[in-house]
Structure formats: structure tokens, C-alpha cells
Specification:
Elements lengths: L8 H19 L4 H6 L8 H9 L21 H11 L18 H9 L6 E2 L6 H14 L2 H17 L9 E2 L9 E2 L4 H13 L10 H21 L2 E2 L2 E2 L5 E2 L17 E2 H12 L6 H16 L5 E12 L4 E10 L7 E2 L1 E2 L6 E4 L5 E2 L7 H5 L4 E2 L2 H15 L9
Antiparallel strand pairs: 1-2, 3-6, 4-5, 7-11, 8-9, 10-14, 11-12, 12-13
GO molecular function: pectate lyase activity
EC number: 4.2.2.2
Keywords: Lyase
């Protein structure tokens, strides 16, 4: 387990032990009665938690010990103390750690020693989930440190927003594709859903002062404006969104080598569901929703099912591969969608780590074929909600009528 060289080992360890004692002292404010009656869900941290336990990463601040003990979900003040422990000096958080882990003194020492590192992100449901958890704990306990950390996290989110309304994957900005406006893995919409709670007076944010609330309202409106501006248009016809958009031009952009600029149905679903929740939508929002709904309907793939099957195990450069996937013809299968559709042609699109465009799952290497979500059923969520939305806001216009 590594310790940052910037702090002496003895001083950092002492600080970590003091922090642990201090946290346990405050955690005592959560009575036994509270533990039995109140549970604050830690499900939003699942993605990071799974990465921490499931993927060995030498760059981690700390890695799990064998049989790492964990707090019960009801022990929300202790979990919140962990969240504060991991919060960086700039107000954001690093990804891929378990907020329920009962850290050893050595692990606490290393985490505390990393606070000045500015490698902070929204990826893998990070930062915006921490902010909301802290807000809920403060609402339950009225312990000031949770409010302070929560507001610091909100300030970080507001500072990270581009002038055009979008958010990068990492902030402060780093080299490469993480600078792009990132819809991938729910980063952008995770932030927007958090801001939506504040804007619409979620009781867990009743402590927010008027100045911060005004800043959040402005960021929220800019975020909606950026969503509308990044919707992909092909010869004037709107479709959906890409996983990532260039932070300057707003055009679809490459992310990882197997994530090409394209119409990305999986990521677009949460965007449309968000827009559909807006009360009294203006004409631009209505057009955006209608266009995306039409795109989802037109991009359905029929008679197709993806099945996973056992295959000889092997170790790739990236992971142990234990199975394989194939596309089979099935007239009874419900409609399905590919994750990517080629810009300009609308063809189902696949890619590999060499960034070459492919047009069937069978052409993708087994490591990527079995290790990535190339197909999705998620657009069906939008199509099911559309009739009610359409009757309420556009009763005279139904894009699904033939």
C-alpha cells in the first residue's frame, strides 16, 4: 500500500488516527434508534464499489484488504465520515472506492495523504452521489461537517461546468477525451438530476443559502441549453446524442478507442427521460423529445437476441475472459437497439480497440465482444412513457402515428 511522499509517514498516520477517533466521536450522534429506523441507500455507489473490489488497479490510493469489513447501510454517519475522508481539497472525489469500507489506520493514512491531488471526477457515479448522500445525512443529523462538505462538493460541480453548460469527465481538466462533454456512464445526467433536486426544493437541500441556490439555478438552465445544442442533427433532422461531445464545437467525439463518434442510444435514454420530466416544456424541448422518440422508434432492430455462452477461458491484456457472446435470429424476441449507430448512415456500429469501424458483433474481438454492452433495451423505457407525455404536452402531435 503506497503513501504519498509529500507528507511524512508518521505525521500522516497520526493525523489519520486522530481523524478516525474524531469521526467515531461524531458518529455517536446517530442513536441506536436512528439506525433501526433510517437507512440511506448506498446503491448509487455500487459502480465505484464494484470497480474497487473487482478490478485491480495499482494507481488506486488504497486497495481492499482480504475480507475488507464494511459498515451496515444503516450506519450512515460512519459512511458519511468515509465520504468526507475521501473528499479532495478542491471539493471533488476520486472514483472507484467503497464508501462502506471500514478502513484500516493505514488506509486512512493514505487517503488523507492524497487530499491535495486534484484527480477528481464525475465518472462511475462519483461526486454528485457523494453530495446527495451528505445532504441526506445532514438532514437527519444536523451535524455541521456534513453540510460543509456537501456545499464544498456543490461548489466543485459549479466550478467544473463549461461556459457552454456542459461538464467534462474529470475536473480540473486533464489531457485526452476526458475533457469532452461527457454523457457516458451517466456523468452529465447524474449532475443534472442532482441540480434538479436543488432547483425543485428537495427537502434534503433545504439548508442551501439563497446565493448558492441562484448559482445552481443558473447552472441548471445552462445544462439544459447544452443538452439541446448537442443533440445530433443530420441534414436538419434531429436524432439523439453521442456518448461524448467536443467541448468547443459540441460535435460528437471519440472517447475510448472502441467508443466512436456516433448516435449513442444507451446514453441518450436518460437524457430524454430527464427532458420528459420538465414541466411546461418550451417548443425547443418538445421538439427535442419528439425527435429522439422518433429516432428510437425508427432504429429498432427486430428478430434479434444476444446470448452469452461459455467459452474457453483466457487472460487478455485487460482482463480474464470467461465467456463469449453472439447474435442469434429470434422471431419472438422484443425489439432491441445497438449502443451505436453510424453518423450519416444510421447503420448499427461496432468498434474494437484499434478504432476500426465494424458492422457486426461477430467482427469484434472476443475480449471487447464479451466485455462491453453493445446492445440495449433501454429505449423502450422512453417509448413506454411517451404516450402519457405526448397527451399532456403535445396532444395534436404524435410522432409515432404512421
Amino acid at each position: 500500500m503506497k503513501t504519498l511522499k509529500s507528507l511524512s509517514s508518521n505525521k500522516s498516520l497520526l493525523f489519520g488516527i486522530i481523524l478516525t477517533s474524531f469521526s467515531f466521536l461524531y458518529s455517536g450522534a446517530q442513536s441506536e434508534k436512528d439506525k433501526k429506523t433510517t437507512v440511506i441507500s448506498t446503491k448509487p455507489f455500487s459502480d465505484s464499489m464494484n470497480h474497487w473490489y473487482g478490478i485491480a488497479d495499482k494507481s488506486n490510493i488504497v486497495n481492499p484488504i482480504p475480507n475488507q469489513p464494511r459498515y451496515e447501510e444503516s450506519e450512515y454517519t460512519k459512511i458519511a465520515d468515509n465520504i468526507i475522508c475521501f473528499q479532495r481539497d478542491n471539493g471533488g472525489w476520486p472514483k472507484n472506492y467503497d464508501m462502506r469500507a471500514i478502513l484500516t489506520p493505514e488506509q486512512i493514512n493514505d487517503v488523507v495523504g492524497s487530499r491535495s491531488v486534484l484527480h477528481t471526477t464525475f465518472d462511475n457515479s462519483t461526486t454528485y452521489t457523494h453530495v446527495y448522500y451528505l445532504a441526506q445525512v445532514y438532514t437527519q443529523t444536523k451535524i455541521e461537517k456534513y453540510k460543509t462538505a456537501c456545499l464544498k462538493g456543490i461548489d466543485f460541480i459549479l466550478e467544473a461546468q463549461y461556459a457552454n453548460g456542459g461538464w467534462p469527465q474529470y475536473y480540473p481538466l486533464e489531457k485526452g477525451y476526458s475533457r469532452h462533454i461527457t454523457f457516458n456512464d451517466g456523468a452529465y445526467m447524474g449532475i443534472m438530476n442532482l441540480l434538479d433536486k436543488i432547483v425543485h426544493n428537495d427537502p434534503n437541500f433545504s439548508f442551501i443559502d439563497a446565493e448558492t441556490k441562484n448559482k445552481v439555478n443558473t447552472a441548471y438552465e445552462k445544462g439544459i441549453d447544452c443538452i439541446l445544442k448537442t443533440q445530433i442533427s443530420d441534414h436538419g433532422k434531429l436524432s439523439a446524442w453521442c456518448q461524448q461531445h467536443d467541448e468547443v464545437t459540441l460535435l460528437p467525439a471519440w472517447a475510448r478507442k472502441f467508443e466512436p463518434p456516433s448516435v449513442s442510444n444507451a446514453e441518450s435514454v436518460d437524457i430524454v427521460l430527464f427532458l420528459m420530466r420538465i414541466e411546461n416544456p418550451n417548443e425547443q424541448i418538445i421538439r427535442s423529445v419528439q425527435s429522439a422518440v422518433k429516432w428510437f422508434e425508427d432504429s429498432k432492430i427486430y428478430n434479434t437476441r444476444v446470448e452469452t455462452f461459455e467459452a474457453p477461458e483466457f487472460d487478455s491484456k485487460f482482463k480474464k475472459v470467461k465467456d463469449d457472446r453472439r447474435v442469434v435470429n429470434d422471431p419472438t424476441a422484443p425489439p432491441i437497439w445497438t449502443r451505436y449507430y453510424e453518423l450519416g448512415t444510421g447503420r448499427p456500429l461496432f468498434c474494437d480497440r484499434d478504432s476500426v469501424y465494424l458492422y457486426s458483433l461477430a467482427e469484434v474481438s472476443r475480449e471487447r465482444r464479451s466485455g462491453y454492452a453493445w446492445y440495449t433495451y433501454n429505449p423502450e423505457k422512453v417509448l413506454k412513457k411517451y404516450p402519457e407525455w405526448q397527451k399532456k404536452w403535445t396532444p395534436e402531435t404524435d410522432v409515432l402515428k404512421k
